[in-house]
Write the structure tokens for this entry.
Amino acid sequence: MAAPNDDRAIIYGAMLWMGDRLNTDQGEQLREIWSTRGRKAFIAEKAKAVASLARADEHASDVRTLYIATPPATMPAAEAA
């Protein structure tokens, strides 16, 4: 028996329920709804990941610029060496 807070049991139960629903007279309509929602979610996740990578790259570029533009004499001793 699964632990009370085991998400695997919830996911498995939901998948079984979805399978049952797909075998009803509403199956085609549900396939269309769920596949549309899934495609939109994939697109949104990809856009979010691309934006996050762009921000990380911009930050890294800013850090490199600041580091390169800082004269060695003003850097702490550990970094100047």
